[in-house]
Amino acid sequence: MGEVHEVQIQARLRDINTGGHVDNVEAMRVLDEARIRFFGLGRRADQLGIPREPGLLDDLPDHVGNLVGAQRVDYLAEMRFAPIQPFRVRMWVGHVGTSSFTVESEIHTTAQGEGGEPAVVAESSVILWDRSSDATWRIDDTVRAVLTRYLGEPVPLRPRPSQPMDA
């Protein structure tokens, strides 16, 4: 397993639904915020007045952005709201293709402890997009080397209902 990016995302009271647990849409927000921090804000951090942290996609040319092409999410355990207790999100790269890669994610709650099983696992397919040509951008050697530093096994996702269990 390569490097793993780990970040804490603060839980908010508005994240809970009427059942008292974190709403599935808010779990996606936690994943999105963690992914933005994993990729890095670059110059946007300066514009927002927040400290710049190194990011996975810092070496992309200015005209290249990223788009989420697909996401699969499995909810494995209830995520209850606990005031002042952040979610711990772990992220790494599961696959590097020609113009896309996958981000593997786990959300852990404080109640599960440091070594506990994740409450949520997800896989996001990310496409690198050249805004100047309006087409996918072929991953160059510099960006591939950074992505490969974070390369690890895909998260275990449940089979889809139409898939046989041994597929």
Automatic annotation (TrEMBL):
Pfam short name (any one)? 4HBT_2
Q: Does the keyword Hydrolase apply?
A: yes
* Keyword NAD assigned: no
- What are the UniProt keywords, alphabetically? Hydrolase
Q: Which SUPFAM superfamilies match?
A: Thioesterase/thiol ester dehydrase-isomerase
Q: Which residues form the signal peptide?
A: none
Q: Which GO terms describe its molecular function?
A: hydrolase activity
Tell me the protein's name: Acyl-CoA thioester hydrolase
This chain's source organism reads: Marihabitans asiaticum
